[in-house]
Batch of 2 targets.
Target 1
Amino acid sequence: MNRALHRWPGLLALVLVTVLALSGAALSVFPTAERIAAPQSVAGQSVADLAASVAATHPGLEEIRRSPSGTITAWWFDGGTPGSAVIDPATGADVGSAHPIAVERWLTNLHRSLFLGDAGRLVMAAGAAAMLVLTMTGAALVARRTGGWWRWFARLRGPLAGRLHVELARVAVLGLALSATTALWITASTFDLLPDGVARPPEPAAVSGQMDFPPERMVALQDVPVSALRKLSFPYAGDAQDVFTLSTDAGTGLIDQGTGELLSWADPTPWQRVSETIYMLHTGQGAATLGLILGLLALGVPVMGVTGTLIWVAGRRGRPRLRDNAPAARAQTVILVGSEGGSTWGFAATLAKALRDSGQAVHVAPMSAFDPARHPHTERYLILVATYGEGAAPASAKGFLDRLARMTKAPTAPLAVLGFGDRSFPAFCAFAEQVEETARVKGWASLLPMDTVDRKSPQDFARWGRVLGQALGLKLELDHQPARPEAHALTLISRRDYGEAVQAPTAILRFAVPKATPWARLTGRGFARFQAGDLLGVLPDGSAVPRFYSLASGSRDGFVEI
């Protein structure tokens, strides 16, 4: 289930999450740049001092704002003409434009809504939801691959694309989950789905009716340092009933313009505090370093998108094209396949064709998709399964045993299990044996005793087919011609022979590691990374079945030795 939940949202939302990630990464730079460029406040400066200096240089002053980075901006009307600027808090003079640069505005609109307004916001929220699903399912898949949460950073093996995908996920998963979760919260807040609005102070019962009290003498402003200011709104010119509105980190208050007296106050609500924290975490406004880190992690998203697509393509490439695959709901015979490298799918295709030629409706599917409810008319289940490593489930059988163990009732149609492996290894068909044993414990009726195929032997497979045909009352001749696997030509560097004198001849062969382009390595077509103890399959001339030898060297040695 985790694999499917991870794969399809990732493929379907690849472009959307990539746009989200890249635009978010670009925007993460601006809070740091703003913080560096912002004129520094004077030590110990109060809001009263700041208001007085800005009002002196800007007639018609309407509002002073302080951003989380420390930038002070002022907004005013002078002779009916609006104006705004970034302010030097030490002098009250203009030092720059108050409006974001064009690139920042463009990126913000792209990131928030794809320039599509509210509809675009919902689309980008769907992208954030897809990213959250990807991070959660991806974390579960990483834990499964590495052998548990406690082995999160265990050394990886396998094709480059898969390793790069997991390496990036292991580092970025928490940051991406945080960005996605906070994005969904901000969207909900934007559409007023959360009670997180700014608390408004109660309207004062009465005001002095006086005007023009100097801001520098207002006690309510003298007690607030500039570092705590968010916004100071000035009363409307000529309106004696209007008041100053002061917003700080601690809350919002109303101040009498004629006396400087604090008339009313409202503390921020818990919802407001949570939303402000989430906004800070998502945008980096007020946490520039965290924003840069999250932006850097977001750059991994397009790389994971590409490598994830390559992994999916490689997996599809490992499966044969199954023609005439009957719908699951109408199948008489269901063939479930557990394969790591793809060869077991070839055997399944041969079996499915033979059964169809005998008049059967056959559905072939991975073991990971097992669900008896999808097969109401099936008369039998045939499981063809290989073993990965030391008895582990192969890629297309992940989760099968867990799903089977959770079932309260076994399927009514009987089961036959055929294991694929190599008898030279201790864990020969160990996973197939686990499937057979779990099915027996569950009370799943057996169509045939479990059987095995050694080293992809067409003869073993044909023998099992004849036994299956007898059980079904059919004549089954399984003439399987295994496809020759892709291989690399190795160049022999040296050969050392030992043991001839004691009639135990042994040869140590050393080969050069084949060169591969970065793209070939990324797409899984290069020579895989390896270590001592791994197996090297050697294809004899004219054969499609490799012979396996244990490696005596690793990739870091720079050569292949058996």
Target 2
Amino acid sequence: MQSEKLQSEACKVLEWAKLLDLVAAHAQSTIGAEQCRSMELARDVAQARVRQEETSDMLRLHAGIDPFPILRFPNVMEWLGRVAKGACLEAHELRDIALVLELIVDVQRYLLRHQADAPTVSAMADQLGPVLDYRRLTVALNGAIDPDGSIRESASPELHRLIQRATDFKQQMRHRLEQILHSRRYEEVLQERYFAQREGRYVVPIKAEMQGRMPGIVHDVSSSGATLFLEPRELVDLNNSIKVVDLDVEREVRRILRELSALVAPHQPALAGSVALLGRLDAISAKAALSQRLQASPPRLNDQGRILLTQARHPFLVVSKDQVVPNDLAFDETVRVLIISGPNTGGKTVILKLLGLFSLMVRCGLHLPCASESEMAIFPSVYADIGDAQDLARDLSSFSAHITQMVQLLNEVSDGAGLGLDSVPPPPGRALVLLDEPVTSTDPAEGAALASALLCRLAAAGVKVVATTHYSLLKGLAQDRPGFANASVEFNLDTLSPTYRLIQGQPGGSAAIEIAGRLGMDQSLLEDARARLQGDNRVLETLLSDLQDKQRRLNDDLTRATVARQAAEQSSREAQELLTFLQESERDERQGLKKKLSQEFQRARAAVQATMDDLKRDQKL
């Protein structure tokens, strides 16, 4: 139970429910949206791979010339639950079931057509129930119910006869009413020349003061009291006949609905399963639609704790911003703890949440917004301590609340793990732990020492840890200790602004004084702060800032060199193409000249031969 609570808290701080809402927004049915919001996480790599393949299959189907049927269908689960208990469904409810039955048949045919190009999704065709029986049931329902949800007159011979009889009576009634409304006898009595219905009986509006001039039954009075709605005595028998036949029609309709409901009832278990599967297909379709929106890719999966992400972007940033800085993250199985440092505004927490969301997304079949060659580990558990954990209800300070969470976490991940510093730790795939500035809100020296011991204990427990920090002790730990690695978010000292790029292999300075200046703090105060900064810390911050600035300049130089190399390669290719063209042109020209000379030579030989032949003839003469 404690593990479930910790993981639930992790999902909350990672905004997992918000991401599921984003998926659900792409669903076409209420059942599909519900399944999106309650998606279960795969337990292992094999199950996660199947779910990734389902989404990839659906993407291919959506992109094909024969797109997947539209899965916008009514939620009939309530109707099916009632009919299973013997209830008589209404006509519109049976109409909804007929619509779903038709969709089930269409989807099964579609899946059978696409077994070759979408094998994982098409394998669900057999789970869609007894389609032949569904067709017969569909014919029965559609034969009795119109698309607008009303009973067809042709639903039974008796209903047809009764409706015709009711129609005859009502025609007679209208004829009699027209006679009354246009009679000179009642011209002064009538308030207006129209008829209405009250309590299912035909009435005419008369003036209240003229009630005695027209015998009959008053059924209603206008709000002003000036008009009475009266059923003339001469129409009572005909109104009675209409009422009786209308009741007969209603009884026959109820009989037909009971009969149709009884036809549906035996199919309820299979039909409920088929409807749930339609919802699942709709949820898969929603995942595919979100993949398109995020320009996402299916990553390779492993259970060794290996994370190799290329051009990774946070999904919430992708949907809310036009430009998102992508990041590469190499966090293989040899690294157990990654320490991310750098300025507060640089995007460290975004990296934490990105990793947490990615670890959940891959387990439910969601593609990741990163390059296709990326790889992501499957973690059975994800823990996250991000943000302020202050709990006023329990009288816990921020520090106490964080430490309480860490104690609970250590109890969870340490069960059965070798925790001696010299012991061989288990593989780093048991859990992913995300810590945002662990052990703060206390004395910095003690906090850094406690955070260092905590990270070493977690590494020994065989979990994968990503932690952000400003503690120099942790940055040094990541430089010296095997299985630990540094990374930092880049800060541009020239512009005094973050670039949101992650730099692996080196720690980063906090740049707190520079950022304070960027936010408008007085320069003299900043100079005083720099003077008060202890010597070692000042040197370290300066070294880190210089190192990061040099790294940024090297990256810029590398980018320019890469562009120049690509341009040179392009120029070389173009020169080679031009040389090849000239060589081919020269060869073609030589061949043409040779052919031309050969033709001229042949013509000359022919001319010489002709002259010699002429001379021989002249000599004979």
